[in-house]
Amino acid sequence: MPDVTSTSFGLVIAYLLPGLAGFYTLSLWSHRVDGVLNAFATANSTFGLSLLVVLASLTIGMILTIFEWLIYQKTMDWFRSKTLGDMTVLGKDSTKLAAFRALADEHYRYHQFYAGMTIVIPFLFAGWEHKYWQVYTYGDYLLALAAVLTLEGCLAAGAAQAYRFYVDRGGQILKA
Prior knowledge:
mainly alpha; 5 helices; flat
């Protein structure tokens, strides 16, 4: 079995974790998806079912990247004049390519995670509210809403900062 590298760990963070959160969110709205997740959570879960959950989560995670791109990257690029620069340099310089890949693994993947979670969490909260609202008191609901809004704000700030850092450092690598 291959070693877990920063690249594979970064891809899990960027795509699988937000996708899995999105898949769980779907289970709050769909009885069929809820049944799949409940079966997956048992000790009798099959390889096929596990593969289905992982592939569905990766698919959701990949779909989330389109919304991340629109919400964070395009918006931030419109408001900032700073971009990465000429990426063709990476094909000519293996040292720059290695540095750029490390930058992507160590910063851009975290941006993707934070941004993906900011997209999933409002739907997760709405699903939780849809499925469980009658169980909680008004005070519990307000506390949960405050926690979700705080988490959403922190994740959005983290996503924006990680993307800024990625663009700033990426530009430095490309120009060096």
